[in-house]
Amino acid sequence: MKLQKQAKVPTIEIDLSRIQQLSQEHDDENWKFRSWLKQYAPDDIDGLVRTLSQKYFALIDCRQCANCCRSLHVEFKKSELHTIAKTLGQSIEEFQKQFMSEGTVNPPCPMLNEKLCSIYEDRPGVCRSFPHLEQPEFTSRLIGVIDNVAVCPIAFNAFEELKAKLAWPRP
Length: 171
Ligand code: SF4
Ligand code: SF4
Fold this sequence. Notes:
There is one protein chain. This protein has helices at about 15-25, 25-40, 45-60, 65-70, 80-85, 90-100, 125-130, 140-150, 155-165, and strands at about 100, 105, 110-115, 115. With about 170 residues, the protein is mainly alpha-helical. It has a domain at about 70-130. The protein has a two-stranded antiparallel sheet. It has a two-stranded antiparallel ribbon with strand order 3-4. It is elongated. The model is unreliable at about 1-5 (pLDDT under 50). The structure holds iron/sulfur cluster (SF4) (2 copies). One iron/sulfur cluster (SF4) binds near residues 109, 112, 119, 123 and 127.
C-alpha cells in the first residue's frame, strides 16, 4: 500500500535573520506554490488565511519586532502625511524633503520610536492592515505576500502553515 507523505507542520519561526535566509531558500518553492494556489486554492482561501493571520498575530509580538517599520518604504495617503508632518512640527514640504523619496517614506519610518510606533492609535491605514493577510482576494495579491514573507514573521509563518494545511503536493 502506498501511503501519502504527511505534510510537515512547521514550527514557529521569529528570528528575523533566519526568516530572511529561509525566505531566500524558499523563493523558488514560494513561486511554485503561488502558481498552484492560482489554480487550486479552495473557495474559502480568504477565510483560511485570515484565521492563520489572527493565529500568528496572537503568537508574535509586533512590539518586539518592528521590522516592517524599520525596513520597508511605505506609501501613506496625502491626508495621513499631513497629520504625520504636523505631529513632527513640519510642513509637508519639509517632511517630504527630509523623509521621502519617490512618493514613499524611507525606512526607518520617522514615527518609529525604538520598536514602538509613536502614533500607534492614529497610524495610517497601510500600517493597520500590514502584512495584508486579512484583505480579500488573497490569490490575486500573492506577489506582495511573497515579498512580505521575507520581512514579517507573521506573514512568513502563516504562509508556511498554509502550504502544510492545504497539503500542497510539493514538486
Ligand atoms: S507610522 Fe507607525 S506603524 Fe506606520 S510605519 Fe511608521 S512607525 Fe510603523
Ligand atoms: S507586522 Fe510583521 S514585520 Fe511588522 S512588526 Fe508585526 S511581525 Fe514584525
